[in-house]
Amino acid sequence: MRFRAKIVDLACLNHFSRIINTIAKLAKTCILRLTVCKLYFILSDKVANGGASMWCELSQGNFFDEFQMEGVAAEHNEIYLELVPENLSRALKTAQNAKAVKIKLTNKHCPCLSVAVELPSLSSSSRIVTHDIPVGVIPRRMWNDFREPSVPDFDVSIYLPALKTMKSVVERMKNLSNLIVIEANLSGEMNLKIETDLVAVTTHFKDLGNPPWASEDGCESNTQDRDLESMAEACIDIKKLLQLLAGQQVNPTKALCNIVHKRIVHFILLHEEVSLQYFIPAIA
Amino acid sequence: ASLDNARHLSSLLRAVHFQDHATCVATASGLRVTVEDAKCIQANAFIQAEIFQEFSVQEESVMFRISLSVLLDCLTIFGTSSLPGTSTALRMCYRGYGYPLMLFLEEGGVVTVCKINTQEPDELLDFDFCSTKVVNKIILQSEGLREAFAELDMTSEVLQITMSPDKPYFRLSTFGNAGSAHLDYPRDSDLMEAFHCTQTQTNRYKISLLKPSTKALALSCKVSIRTDAQGFLSLQYMIRNEDGQICFVEYYCCPDENMSEAEL
Hints:
The complex is a heterodimer.
Chain A: E1 2-7, H1 10-26, E2 30-34, E3 38-43, E4 53-59, E5 66-70, E6 79-83, H2 85-93, E7 100-108, E8 110-119, E9 127-134, E10 136-137, E11 156-159, H3 163-176, E12 179-184, E13 190-195, E14 199-205, E15 232-237, H4 238-246, E16 254-260, E17 264-270, E18 274-281
Antiparallel strand pairs in A: 1-5, 1-7, 2-3, 2-6, 3-4, 4-18, 6-10, 7-8, 8-9, 11-16, 12-13, 12-15, 13-14, 16-17, 17-18
Helix pairs in contact in A: 1-2, 3-4
Chain B: E1 2-3, H1 7-14, E2 21-27, E3 30-37, E4 41-48, E5 61-67, H2 68-75, E6 89-94, E7 101-107, E8 110-116, E9 134-141, H3 142-150, E10 158-163, E11 170-176, E12 179-185, E13 192-197, E14 201-206, H4 207-210, H5 213-219, E15 220-228, E16 233-240, E17 246-253
Antiparallel strand pairs in B: 1-6, 2-3, 2-5, 3-4, 4-17, 6-7, 7-8, 9-13, 9-15, 10-11, 10-14, 11-12, 15-16, 16-17
Keywords (chain B): DNA damage, DNA repair, Nucleus
InterPro entries (chain B): Cell_cycle_checkpoint_Rad1, DNA_clamp_sf, Rad1_Rec1_Rad17
Protein name (chain B): Cell cycle checkpoint protein RAD1
């Protein structure tokens, strides 16, 4: 099992750091899956996470100048590591003006991801700061726990409103309630609602647009028969929603959510080189 | 009532937000929001009817008690940062006793509807502070006091205010762990807009009660400081909002009873 990669371009480095920062806000611990072409950050829906799960996918070619990976075995040319993304985020903070960053899987007392940041210095030899981030290697037999979640059979799919507005509103609502109801319909309308003994607040978003989903087998998608006005709703933990919204440092190219009535909300945020999916289950 | 820019209301209410609950009174002349603490201090925010684009009260006056924290969270639902050009439009409705206060806020095409439950209004303190019984009065430009109030020694239990026709004219004193601090303002200072002191008075007020007034001071351009024969303090802050309109916030405070005779 071997892994080494290098980023030299500052823009790629900053972009990568921003992605790690977003992941760090969503998960205390997550799985990093390395394949020949892609990196995945995965959070599976265990009770410890409050049932929320995450799948973030990026193409290594968009970020790394060098990328060499050898998996656990020839037929399973992948590596699964468990790590604390906050550690990686902090390591990358020192790399804001770096000349290069090299990441390597090493074994120093325990398996680590060594992040070596080469910093410019006044003298001819560069300064190198190395961060050793402890990781856990996930054995092959557990890989099935971290498969890509399938898109749920949703009732409504809708584009999200401006994340900045959504974030302001949800931030205020968090002061008033622990739970928030997201409801949306196929006419591009979405409402965020909270209700407690003291106060009820509803924010109405209109004209959001509903993304078209081509069904794979050619038959009518289950949303065709749906009444355009009827709302699908889910009541979720407001902190989880805020974590997702607050973690977005850059505006995504596409942001949408799929709601399975009273079951789960599936958020998809697409940037040019990275896609992030976040599932928040509904609370009964 | 309706208001084009909700910030005109929310920033003023924040200046009196030192307790969770407030009593609101709406009359034909406008809206008054009162917050009290410890039966010693009362803060009032006045928003005249003229500030609103639309303001109508069916009966002579309506009064209710409401959670100020919740009200402020709703008024600022679209965020507190003021981007130039964007403002939140507000519409408030109260149907009467027992009904919730309805707020309709709109910014950039997004509408938020809030329904806040109201409660029985409490008896409000009447400080019986009238202009004819004022012993000492000073009007200062707020910038002169802002730094002083922001840096008050909070280890001191009291803030002592001395007003006098003779030296030291106007003095703020604290007695904290590190020692006592005195801040004097001469009567001929540029910051002094008016100085009418008839008698030397030294009064002490619990500093924890007065500290919240710093918020009102920060927003204001002028402040009037008045005391009456019993040592009751009235602080009136003149606040100019984004559109240049004037509003007032008032703090009334009782003097601290535990004054040691030796200090007098």
